[in-house]
Design a protein that fits this description.
Elements: E1 8-12, H1 17-27, E2 34-38, E3 44-48, E4 56-60, H2 67-83, E5 88-93, H3 112-123, E6 127-131, E7 146-149, H4 152-162, E8 167-171, H5 177-187, E9 190-200, E10 203-210, E11 217-225, H6 229-240, E12 245-253, H7 259-265, E13 270-274, E14 288-291, H8 294-305
Parallel strand pairs: 1-4, 4-5, 5-6, 6-7, 8-9, 8-11, 11-12, 12-13, 13-14
Antiparallel strand pairs: 2-3, 9-10
Organism: Heliorestis acidaminivorans
Domain Ribose-phosphate pyrophosphokinase N-terminal: 8-124
Catalytic activity: D-ribose 5-phosphate + ATP = 5-phospho-alpha-D-ribose 1-diphosphate + AMP + H(+)
């Protein structure tokens, strides 16, 4: 392909180097040479060990846990690349940290998702590639182009290949209905919704299930699974109401705090996630299946580099 002749470069910091290597392998290039050092006082230093002058540079760095450290690595690397005369710098953020702080929920609250967008743009990023933002309007927080890729097609392909019968896709809340409907249409399933309330962050209570799930194979879909309280409560409620088996899927496996323990003890059949966030060895239990997003991001990078339409990847 012609993109080999146009100085395309892939760099990564410490958030998910394995994903960056997969993307680079898909593109037929090597990950750019760089070093990230941490001084004894905690300051981060980035060194770019090859020329990037005039290059189209893509920095792969999900801002996952430890979120603040990975954000600083990204900002400093983008600044270093800008000062080294890179032609264009695209931040590839498979997971966008602080996305759940996208609006003022009470007086004097910050909108941290907007703040992160401002800082990243100020550092020198000229384009952003991300996946399944918690709130789609975060695209508008940026004053630079944002390519917002969906994870549903990857998840749908997995369930189609699995060959499950009598499937109902369940949204764990009203806000996720659009995502659930998309998955349901792709795998030929019906749709149900869980009506829940969240009395405080990371705590949810199932109130009611809207839709027919009795005797069905249920697939719960969400964008993020964090402490897994929502999905585990949903599994119990669905089984109590007559579901035959319950699977769950999500794009971003944050899986913090008691998540792994909860999933391990739950009657959930399987949890399917992607590698937007790397899973530590202690989190790789038998119930969790990880799908790679490297081909999707690789195609997006090719299309951005070649000035082609990225929306084709949404199909």
């Amino acid at each position: 392909m012609s993109f080999f002749n146009k100085k395309l470069k892939i760099f990564t910091a410490n958030a998910n180097p394995a994903l960056a290597e997969e993307i680079a392998e898909y593109l037929g290039v090597s990950v750019g040479s760089s070093q990230i050092k941490t001084f004894s006082d905690g300051e981060i230093q980035v060194e770019i060990d090859e020329s990037v002058r005039g290059a189209d540079v893509f920095v792969v760095q999900p801002t996952c846990q430890p979120v603040n450290e990975h954000i600083m690595e990204l900002l400093i690397m983008v600044d270093a690349l800008r000062r080294a005369s890179a032609r264009r710098i695209t931040a590839v953020l498979p997971y966008y940290g602080y996305a759940r702080q996208d609006r003022k929920v009470r007086a004097r609250a910050p909108i941290s998702a907007k703040l992160c967008a401002n800082i990243l743009t100020a550092a020198g990023a000229r384009r952003v590639v991300t996946m399944d933002l918690h709130a789609g309007q975060i695209q508008g927080f940026f004053d630079i182009p944002v390519d917002h890729l969906p994870g549903v097609p990857i998840l749908a392909e997995y369930f189609l290949n699995k060959g499950l019968q009598d499937i109902v896709v369940v949204s764990p809340d009203l806000g996720g209905v659009t995502r659930a409907r998309d998955l349901a249409e792709r795998i030929g399933a019906s749709l149900a919704i869980i009506d829940k309330r969240r009395p405080e962050p990371n705590v949810s209570e199932v109130m009611n299930v809207i839709g027919d799930i009795k005797g069905k194979t249920v697939v719960i879909t969400d964008d993020i699974i964090d402490t897994a309280g929502t999905v585990v409560n949903a599994v119990d409620a669905l089984l109590e109401r007559g579901a035959r088996d319950v699977y769950a899927c999500a794009t971003h496996p944050v899986l913090s705090g008691p998540a792994i323990e909860r999933i391990g003890k739950s009657p959930l059949k399987e949890l399917i996630v992607t590698n937007t966030i790397p899973l530590a060895d202690e989190k790789r239990i038998d119930k969790i299946r990880v799908l790679s997003i490297a081909p999707l991001l690789g195609e997006a990078i090719i299309r951005i580099h070649e000035d082609l339409s990225v929306s084709k990847l949404f199909d």
